[in-house]
TrEMBL record, chain A:
Protein name in UniProt: ABC transporter ATP-binding protein
Region (Disordered): 258-282
Domain ABC transporter: 13-254
Compositionally biased intervals (Basic and acidic residues): 273-282
Molecular-function GO term, any one: ATP binding
UniProtKB/TrEMBL annotation, chain B:
Subcellular location(s) per record: Cell membrane
Chain segments annotated as transmembrane: 15-41, 61-87, 99-118, 142-162, 190-214, 226-248, 260-279, 367-384, 391-414, 443-464, 471-489, 520-539, 567-590, 602-630, 642-659
PANTHER family in UniProt: ABC TRANSPORTER ATP-BINDING PROTEIN, HIGH-AFFINITY BRANCHED-CHAIN AMINO ACID TRANSPORT SYSTEM PERMEASE
Disordered, as annotated region: 673-696
Signal peptide coordinates: none
Cited InterPro entries: ABC_transp_permease, LivM-like
Protein name, entry field: Branched-chain amino acid ABC transporter permease
Lineage: Bacteria, Bacillati, Actinomycetota, Actinomycetes, Kitasatosporales
Pfam families associated with the record: BPD_transp_2
Topological type in the membrane: Multi-pass membrane protein
Keywords linked to the UniProt accession: Cell membrane, Membrane, Transmembrane, Transmembrane helix
């Protein structure tokens, strides 16, 4: 299973010449990528390489200036985020995004709401809502948060928030899961659990993983794309990509310090500089 | 050439007017951009300068100089005081500060009238300038030419300070990163105070010099504030040149525009303001238009709405009909044997938010304040005299408006100053219906609600794209546009005179019109109870959670496939309908309707009532509205002429003493209480969540 060959079936994700500019800065520059169904793909690169921008483009929170995005053969370049979720794209956020005022269970009920077969009428029919809660509980059990179901999500620790964010992404039964630095700020034990959860996902779910932890990438990803300054440096099987001399130069040299920083629980955004530039311009 | 000739004087006037606004708006922009204070008392700072200058003006240069020094100093001192007042609120977001400054503006305005009298003060310019010069064949007041020169000098000086001096560098640094500034040895507090004092000085100096153009009077502060808000919004916060351009444009609209197209000019400013805000939020927010089909299939919102309505209408009607009974039943049920919650009726489970974890006792506790209030309200006619009872009726009407503001501000996260617009639509619809002979109460209520809902459907797309302070400004523009329309459409609204003399409302179809205060009050109470119960049912249902999720973690909701824009639009329409019902009630209770009943002040009152109540608390909003009407009409009647002062004091006290609103006083954790306690952990982009939600 490689990223570049999908002879018979349509690839689950097909990016063609994707470009996103913020003013004079090109955050994502002519990126093309084909992922077969069930791919385990990682996107790595130094800070500011455009990894999160790429995820945002795929998830729909950002729009490309050029290029097309196709999901399972359907063009979704201009499709809104919410609609893409309905088509099977789910994501986690770099800063875990939880609804602090609602209970952990309600968070997952809302996350799975639009994907539940009985979603119609759930907003006012209690029996429907209870059925939603049952499937939400299953998702919480999968990430080990079932005991905290009744707690307000704002009370959770950082690691628990990551797990809740992941459960919220999985509650949509995605066929393409976008993970934005899921291991950032996690303890080693939490990372172990994360690997177990992700490793146990059915093979129908394709994963794109943006991650600084090389161990997580090596453990999970079968293929890797290395981005540098918005361009694809190399795409290939994990081992080859990580061993590529240019990757050592472009990535390892700058990323070594960054990995240490992440462990201190201060996940830093790759595109933060990018966003700042955009804001300064607007 | 003739056209140019005829409008030469207004055009030059426009430049003077524009420069005046530029100096004032620069202060407002400085305060908001660098100190983060949305200063709704900025117009009052101008008025301080204008009154001082007018009082000290005696037709000599010396009088002008003394006036300039005194007016500038007084306004600067007021600005410094404002800084001291707002610093403790800095962590509570823009809304708390805006409400505080509005309260201070009410107090300041009242004190100014106290000292200087309610009439417009005459201003005597130095005699040398009290003449006309000939300008390109036109006679033109010398003072205005001189003012243009002085304003240019003032603006140039301000720009020089800001861009070329160390002080200016510190101020600009403070706008970007106060913490970084602190590490370089500047106290952010000192910068904050300095910035607000400088903003006050600018407004004060503009007030002294501009007094012959916008003179000191009762409406000065409001006019100046509104116009400079428009300038700041049009010009943006980034560039002084854009602000200057916007100021001149606004000045020209106010002078040249009024002389060229008097019918259009009132709309032009606020329409432009709304357009700029909407366009700007369009660029910052991801575009979602036309793609809200979601899993429901089809992206046509109207078709979707129709399908949705036909599917759920029967259910909702049943809910409405039994709603009132349900509340009473619930109280009884709470005392009966503990029914397992699984076998409770769906309505009752709805009341508890569809959750099964709360016991009946807990639910009873939650509803207890609402029930206690209901009992009190039912008993009111036997307790109060006729006049006070009619005040209570007004409070109910304003209470519905406050609840609709609370829904948008607290639940949907859209702080609004424009709910008076659908409120006005409902009110004028009712008055016109009555005038045409349709006096049956249910007809009036339903028509008012539908008209207001349609209005909110139209304005909704402009509101729901933006977040935070931008919403405040867009809704303010909508409210002002509605006010302008009310003043123009005299055949429907009676213009500034308002409407009076229409037949009283009948409680039901047929029968006599209600003239007794107690009859009217009971009608108002019945309508209010039904509206509140429907609102509470919807908010406590999972639909309320959808709104909470949208407010707390919008990106997560979108990523999970929720059509966030659709939820917000529906909330906006529902809140609009509720405001329309409130407007209809107000007309029935008052039996007259004037533009002041639906003006900016009422919008601010409603926002305060919602915030006093705790933003997500329906009962809190009702009590807040009651408190405001009680203060404005009942307490103030025993101290005539000090209504604004008392209301201002109420604003200030509410903002300081009730950081989480009345709802925060309760020990139990209602739907709002828990969130309020945790609100400080909300993501930083929620800096403008309502004051009631942000615990210090």
């Amino acid at each position: 299973m490689t990223a570049t060959t999908a002879p018979s079936t349509a690839p689950v994700l097909d990016l063609k010449n994707l470009t996103r500019r913020y003013g004079s800065l090109t955050a994502v520059d002519d990126v093309s990528l084909r992922l077969p169904s069930g791919a385990r793909h990682a996107v790595i690169g130094p800070n500011g390489a455009g990894k999160t921008t790429l995820l945002n483009l795929i998830a729909g929170t950002d729009r490309p200036d050029h290029g097309t995005i196709a999901l399972g053969g359907t063009d979704i370049t201009r499709t809104a985020t919410a609609r893409r979720s309905g088509l099977g794209i789910a994501r986690s956020f770099q800063q875990p995004s939880v609804i602090g005022e609602l209970s952990v269970l309600d968070n997952i009920v809302l996350a799975g709401w639009r994907h539940h077969p009985l979603r119609r009428g759930a907003w006012w029919r209690p029996s429907r809502y209870r059925q939603h809660a049952e499937s939400a509980t299953r998702h919480l059990e999968a990430v080990g948060l079932a005991d905290s179901a009744a707690r307000p999500a704002a009370d959770l620790s950082h690691g628990q928030r990551r797990m809740l964010d992941l459960a919220a992404a999985l509650a949509g039964d995605p066929r393409l899961l976008l993970l934005d630095e899921p291991a950032a700020g996690l303890t080693d034990g939490d990372i172990g659990r994360l690997l177990t959860i992700l490793g146990g996902l059915p093979s129908s779910v394709a994963i794109i993983l943006v991650e600084h932890h090389v161990e997580v990438v090596a453990e999970l990803a079968e293929t890797v794309t290395v981005l540098a300054a918005g361009r694809v440096l190399i795409t290939g099987p994990t081992k080859e990509a990580l061993a590529h001399p240019e990757v050592r130069d472009a990535y390892h040299a700058t990323a070594a310090g960054q990995i240490g920083a992440d462990r201190d629980g201060a996940p830093e955004a790759a595109p933060d500089g990018v966003r700042d530039t955009a804001e300064a311009r607007g | 050439m003739d056209l140019l000739d005829a409008h030469f004087v207004p055009a030059v006037d426009g430049v003077a007017y524009g420069l005046l606004l530029f100096v004032v708006a620069a202060g407002l922009s400085l305060a908001f951009g660098t100190a983060g204070v949305l200063n709704l008392s900025h117009g009052t700072l101008y008025a301080i300068g204008a009154y001082t200058g007018a009082e000290l003006s005696d037709g000599t240069w010396g009088g002008l100089a003394v006036g300039l020094a005194a007016g500038t100093a007084a306004a600067a001192a007021a600005g410094a005081g404002l800084s001291a007042a707002t610093i403790p609120l800095a962590r509570r977001g823009h809304l708390a500060q805006a409400l505080l400054t509005f309260g201070l503006a009410l107090i300041g305005g009242n004190l100014l009238i106290e000292f200087f009298g309610a009439d417009d003060l005459p201003v005597r310019v130095p005699e040398a300038l009290d003449s006309s010069v000939t300008l390109l064949g036109h006679r033109y007041p010398a003072y205005r030419l001189c003012f243009i020169l002085m304003a240019v000098l003032l603006a140039a000086f301000g720009t020089w300070v800001l861009t070329r001096t160390r002080v200016g560098a510190a101020v600009r640094a403070s706008a970007d990163d106060p913490q970084m500034l602190a590490t370089t040895g500047h106290s952010p507090r000192a910068v904050h105070t300095g910035v607000l004092a400088a903003a006050g000085a600018l407004a004060g100096a503009a007030g002294v010099l501009g007094a012959p153009i916008i003179g000191p009077g009762a409406g000065t502060a409001d006019t100046v504030l509104m116009l400079s808000l428009v300038v700041v919004v049009l010009g943006g916060l980034r560039s002084l040149w854009m602000t200057l351009l916007a100021a001149i444009a606004v000045g020209e609209v106010q002078t040249l525009g009024v002389s060229l197209a008097p019918d259009l000019a009132p709309y032009l400013l606020f329409a432009a303001m709304a357009a700029v805000l909407i366009l700007r939020s369009q660029f910052t927010e991801p575009a979602t238009a036309g793609a809200h089909g979601g899993g429901d299939g089809g992206s046509d919102p109207v078709a979707w709405l129709r399908r949705r309505l036909s599917a759920s209408f029967s259910g909702r009607r049943a809910a409405t009909a039994t709603a009132e009974k349900a509340v009473a039943e619930k109280a009884v049920a709470d005392r009966r044997e503990p029914v397992p919650s699984a076998s409770g009726g769906p309505l009752r489970r709805l009341l508890s938010g569809g959750r099964d974890d709360g016991g009946l006792a807990a639910r009873g506790r939650k509803a207890a304040p609402l029930l206690a209030l209901l009992v009190l309200l039912i008993a009111l006619p036997t307790l109060l005299d006729a006049y006070t009872l009619s005040l209570a009726g007004s409070a109910l009407a304003l209470g519905l408006l406050a609840i609709s503001v609370a829904i948008l501000t607290g639940y949907a996260g859209l702080p609004t100053l424009g709910q008076t617009a659908p409120f006005a639509v409902g009110a004028y619809a009712t008055a016109n219906l009555a005038d045409a002979g349709w006096t049956a109460g249910p007809v009036q209520i339903v028509v008012a609600a539908i008209a207001a809902a349609l209005f909110s459907l139209v304005t909704g797309p402009a509101v729901i794209r933006a977040r935070g302070t931008t919403v405040l400004m867009i809704t303010l523009a909508i409210g002002e546009l509605a006010s302008a329309a009310i003043n123009q459409l005299k055949s429907l609204t009676g213009g500034a005179d308002g409407l009076v003399g229409f037949p009283p409302t009948q409680a039901l179809f047929g029968g006599e019109g209600m003239v007794e205060e107690s009859e009217v009050y009971n009608y108002a109470l019945a309508v209010a109870v039904i509206s509140v119960v429907v609102t509470v049912l919807v908010l406590r249902s999972p639909a309320g959670k959808l709104l909470t999720g949208t407010r707390n973690a919008e990106a997560r909701m979108r990523a999970s496939g929720h059509p966030v824009g659709r939820y917000l639009l529906i909330a906006h329409i529902g809140a609009g309908a509720l405001a329309g019902v409130g407007g209809s009630l107000m007309v029935t209770v008052q039996q007259y309707l004037s533009p002041a009943d639906v003006g900016f002040e009422i919008a601010a009152f409603a926002l305060l009532a919602a915030v006093i109540g705790g933003s997500t608390s329906v009962i809190g909003a009702l009590l807040g509205a009651g408190l405001i009407v009680f203060t404005r009409d009942w307490v103030a009647s025993s101290w005539p002429g000090h209504g604004p002062l008392l209301l201002g004091a109420l604003f200030v006290a509410a903002v300081y003493l009730l950081p989480r609103g009345l709802a925060g006083l309760r020990l139990g954790s209602g739907p709002g209480g828990r969130g309020a306690a945790k609100a400080d952990q909300l993501p930083p982009d929620h800096d403008s969540v309502p004051a009631g939600k942000v615990a210090p």
